Fold this sequence. Notes:
Order of helices and strands: HHHHHEHEEEEHEEHEHEEHHHEHHHHE
CATH class of the domain at 19-187: Alpha Beta
Bound molecules: zinc ion
Oligomer: single chain
Amino acid sequence: MLLLVLGHSWLLRRRRRSALVAVPLALVLLVAAAGIGEARQPARPERATPVDAAEFTAASTALLARRAGAVLTRDRAAWRADLDPHDQQFLARQERVFDALVQLRFDSWRYELLGRNYTVPALASRYGATPYVLPGVLLHYALRGYDPAPVARAQILTLARRDGRWLLSADSDVDELLPPAGHADPWDRRAVAIGQGRHSLVLADERDRDHLDDLVRTADEAVERVTCLWPMGWRRKVVVVAVRDQQLLETYFRLPEADSRDVGAITVRAFDDVPGWSQRPAPEPAQPPSRVIVNPRFFDPDNAQNLDLLTHEIAHVATLPTVGVGTPEWLVEGIAEYAAYRTYDSDELDPVQVSRELRAEAVAGSVALSTTGFYSGAVSDHYTAGWLACRLIEQRVGERGLRTFFARFRSTMRVYDAVPAQEAALQAVLGLSSAEFEQALATYTVQHAAVDEQG
Length: 455
Ligand SMILES: [Zn+2]
């Protein structure tokens, strides 16, 4: 029986520059307005010594440069030297972070001070008269061999001045104000085990270390499966995150309409800018960095379906450079489903289990495809219809034709061009109008699908 791979967060990418940032940005601006050295400490007997802004900027810039150098040269003593020794738990977490970072190779690792500082009155009791500042920072890094361009991660650090020296005292005092992916790389939150394959870098949970080799093999095999369908136009290097930390995944779901409960894994593009944080957009790389993130809610390292799940997600990685803003969502998901199941025999796949509603739609003579709005409503049906549509295209014009069809949307840069672009692509590749294709899909669905009585 076929279990359809669950959804992913393509919509987050689409909405990234609009709705996604609205709420966090508002919070950020409110807090940021207070500015440096103006910490309000109501009813506190001690007041922090005022901070010399120029001195703080110079000292924190130097501290962050040393910290970056410690990562790049894997110099643990240098990493430790700028840590505030007052909080043993923080020191232990920083050791764990460094333990992970030394297992990785970076082309770059640098911090950008944004010149914006946060005020958290609740911290006043912790620091008393000790001056402290919470600067907003962007970490820019690139994993060697995997990130073709740097990725940016927002952080809010806590620096305290003790005995005339600024030290890093905390890195998560106000993580709740961070945008998606802020301070949420796997090493930030967990002890990680890192495995390197031919095509994949797997960041797994330390507790799954015994499964690491299997995970790497599975990820490599998924890359090779995708390559058979999509041989050109991508680097075949994939970063897979499989740590058992729900919060890490939830950072991508800071939207009221998005929910991780129905999501097996997500593929997210990584950017070198953060809306509301970066001064200007980063250049668009031809090959965008990305992360495949497995949802710990469902993750079982022994599950035989992990190969299909990763194949689906890695198909998104492969097609990412070819996706235009107006690429129909049914096609983006349908080709990922197609990639996951293309090696199965038809008697293993068919009859595809579908809902009564989808079957009824097919029997009535036309199956509607979700060009936009794929991720709301009857999402499971949308996945099935998209997958069957890609199978139908392959049946008519082969996999080369399917790739040609997909690539036609590459230059469709506006969402509202998606429908006319789809009309033109169907005519050019299949000689059908959209209405005719949806009728053909209905016939195909009737032939290949049966009602899922348990669904
Ligand atoms: Zn997907």
